[in-house]
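Subject: sequence -> structure tokens, single chain

Hey, anyone have a minute? Need the predicted structure for the following. Not urgent.
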Amino acid sequence: MVQLLLSEPSWSDGGDEDSIKLRISLLNKLESIICSLISSRARSEARVWLCNAMAGISSIMPRHQRDLFVDLFRSKPWKRGLAAQLWRMIFEKMPHKAGKIIAKKSYMLENFFKGNPTRIMHWFSNFSTGGGLETRKGAKALSQFAFVNRDICWEELEWQGKHGQSPAMVATKPHYFLDLDVQRTVENFLEYVPEFWSSDEFAESLKDGEILSIDRKFFVDVFVDLMYKEDSKSVWEAIDEFLMEESFSSLCQHLLIVIEEPDFCLFLELIHKYINPKMEHKDFGRSSCWLEIILSKCSHFESIDHILLLNAVINQGRQLLRLVHDEDTQEEQAKIKDVVLQIRTISSNANGLAPILKCFKTKTTEVIKWLGLQSWVLHYRLSEECLTPESWESLFLNNGISFHKSDKYALLHDDGFAEENGSDLDDRTSIRARRKKKEKSRKKRRKNFDHDDIYKNELLDFGTSSDRLGLRSHTGSWLLSTDGYSTSWSSVDLPEHLSKHCFSTWMSWIFSKASSVA
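Reply:
Had a minute. Here:
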């Protein structure tokens, strides 16, 4: 039976020194195997896991997150790839911030439109017919400028009809602008009317940032150059505003995922000065809580291997287990199984962890690593050893976890129909009625097919293949005292839930002890 080590240890117990050394040695050996497995087969996936965990950090204030990312952007060498991702975010979420900058530098867009009929037609065509359709912003700018400055540019307007239109005629009948040859007119403006490209009318059409959608890559490159080559004050001000207004979670999920590992290490070092977790009232059930503690203690990272490992065993136990059980990792599977079996033979009560827990003040990151690995060992064992409802309930009883069966999950029976756990007569009657109705429906459908035998054989094959793949239906679900009976846990989810609960409990003991000593 798996012992979850949920009874608080005697802090005065020094423990068996040989047993302590053996446990730490085995946990370090397990660390080495898992690190090698992640590096060789799932490093990019583990990076995604870590970015998601970083996104859960909640102790950083908006002005600090701004300073943190600005420090990263301004570090050498230039982070052009990261900056490009930032501007893609701004274009998507707050395009007006970029639009206002483009409006002040509208003259730059001469080269954007020159020699590109597609862009010209996208922005300057579509004049209103008066039928409720709004004239596009570029077309509106073109017509307004032409009226206001008709003395210098009206001759450059090209018309599709047999003759041109006078300003007076177009003023009384604006729909005549529908006859304008937009491409040739804009090309004339590019050649002979430079005043248009820095005009108020053209600038106004750009302010909301809609123009960015024509060619986002072009504008991303423009803004990255404005950041780094011109060090534009207005651009950095827009960045400051965006970094203050956007959530830390979103910034991590969109930006950290694209940076190179050396820059990721730099980010971890920079964040150190903005995190100061309090020792009391920590929510160790929150996935990023341990990460805040680690980052507050470490000011230098040569690699992210250590953090990737910790996050995998603490927050991604189920995904890590799937990686271990991959058919291409048989050698690692055998090594991990052997280490877990050896750890199983060591003291099965919480006093076996006491000496490790007491090292927390001097070896904070090491202790969190050992506890994380120990919790994953429990995850591994629960997945391997608890395969029936009876084994789960025996586990609960032996580890002091109160429980009662849940009726929230439907169980899939051999006949393929769902039935609730409850024993109420009305429920059973309702289930029987639904079953009969479904049987009728099934018979009716079968009459429409001439290949009943094939249909039956396919059903048989599906069931057989499901058994071979180990696809079992839920065998039950329980409400547990571990979370105040708030969630119905199935056998599929219990290994992850209980291993995380153990890690959270052990960390709570450490901080409770630290608070009482202080």
